[in-house]
Structures are given as structure tokens and as C-alpha cells.
Hints:
It contains 2 helices and 10 strands; from the N terminus they run ββββββββββαα. By secondary structure, the protein is mainly beta. Helix content is 9%, strand content 33%.
Amino acid sequence: xxxxxxxxxxxxxxxxxxxxxxxxxxxxxxxxxxxxxxxxxxxxxxxxxxxxxxxxxxxxxxxxxxxxxxxxxxxxxxxxxxxxxxxxxxxxxxxxxxxxxxxxxxxxxxxxxxxxxxxxxxxxxxxxxxxxxxxxxxxxxxxxxxxxxxxxxxxxxxxxxxxxxxxxxxxxxxxxx
Length: 177
């Protein structure tokens, strides 16, 4: 298991311009709350591959790669969901150049790896986390899991109450119920 860290001292590598390092680290990830439900990273941490390259001046070019599985309820059927996501993120920290080149994760030569991992994972998450891509969800009438219900599961539609008065009309020669 690679060493666990939440922040990393980039200056401690003592890289000169053009030099780089590839590291494998373990980073803890806080649970996500999406749609009022909590989703946690499997095992509470991820193994990340961090590529660090020194640019001119006091800057760094950074690349972060990892895979993470989440555990939580499916947003359609509420069964257990365990989707997995691949993350490939880049950051450039070139202090003093421009705001676009000033990474929010690097301050004073220290990389806030925990925040970067969490934000990078959040950016790849879809709008809905599902147990499987073709999840049919729950029946809106009876609440049955449509993934397990028989094919053609349906209910008779209740008459529209806006038309109730018209049902009270009876025409001559029409049989009454």
C-alpha cells in the first residue's frame, strides 16, 4: 500500500526546471452528499498516480490519475449502487504569471492533494448515480422495483378529476349505471 498523505510538499522534491517525478500515494476522500443521500468512496481512500514536473521559475505542472468506486443508494430504485469512475486531472501552478496559471490546490509550495482528489472526483460524477445504466427505477403508483417486476407492469389510470362533472351528464336514451 502506498503511503497515505493529504498534502504534499512539492519543494521537498528539489526539482530543477524540466525535471519530473511520478509518485503513487494513498489519499483519504470525504463522503459526498448528493440528492440528500451519502455516497462514500470504497475503502475510504484511493490510490493516486501523481506526475509532478517543474516549470520555469517557481511553477509546477501536475497530473493526477486514479480510479474510485462509490457506495450508496441508486438514485432511481434505491438499491445499493457501486459505480466506478476514472479520473485524469491536470493543474498548473505558475505563481505570479496570471490567475489562470495559479492553482487553488498549491499554496506556498504545498499541494493540497486531499482537496484536489475530492474536487476532481466530483467533476466526473454524473447527474444521477445508478446501480446499472439501464435501471428502470420504482413504479410511481405502487413503489415496486421495476428492475424486478414482471414485464408490462402497469396500473389502470384513475380518471382525471377535472372531467368528473362531464361523467354526470346523461343523454336521452342512454342507459344509466
